[in-house]
Structures are given as structure tokens and as C-alpha cells.
Specification:
Layout (H helix, E strand, L loop, with lengths): L2 E4 L1 H9 L2 H13 L9 E2 L6 E5 L2 E8 L4 E9 L8
Parallel strand pairs: 1-5
Antiparallel strand pairs: 2-3, 3-4, 4-5
Length: about 80
């Protein structure tokens, strides 16, 4: 089972959301701990992964050797990729 860690930017975004949306996002992220690669898609041209959650996307790094998933950013699907 993989452990989940959140980068400060991802935590900040979750705190801005209403409780219902934040709970849905957190439940989805924690549900992938057993088999993350079943749900994740590779970001093109990068070594990061994305997870679709309703109208949101979560970018994450998966450290297989350490069994860790680091959630780097979470944002709305139309502007999550703007900073790359």
C-alpha cells in the first residue's frame, strides 16, 4: 500500500474549496493507495502522473521504490496545466 503526502500547494488549494468538494477529492486520492497505476495517467513529456476527479485534476509523483505518492498540485482542469 502506498502512503499519500501532500505538497503545500495542494493543501492550500484543498483549504479553499468547500468541504463537500474537498472530501470528494480526498476520498478519490486515498482510494488509489492499493493500485495507483490503475487510475493514474502519465502526463505527456513529464515524469508525473494525473488523476481525474470530477472537474479537477491532481498532479502527483509516484515513488515506487518508497511506496509513496506525493500530490504536488490540485486544480481545475482548465487551468491546472497552465504553469507548465
Amino acid at each position: 500500500m502506498y502512503s499519500i503526502e501532500f505538497a503545500p500547494h495542494a493543501e492550500k488549494f484543498l483549504k479553499k474549496l468547500n468541504k463537500n468538494e474537498a472530501d470528494i477529492i480526498l476520498n478519490k486520492i486515498y482510494s488509489i493507495r492499493e493500485n495507483p497505476f490503475r487510475f493514474l495517467e502519465r502526463l505527456k513529456g513529464e515524469k508525473l502522473w494525473k488523476l481525474r476527479i470530477m472537474k479537477f485534476r491532481a498532479e502527483m509523483d509516484v515513488l515506487v521504490s518508497a511506496n509513496r505518492i506525493i500530490v504536488l498540485t490540485i486544480g481545475h482542469r482548465k487551468n491546472i496545466y497552465d504553469k507548465h
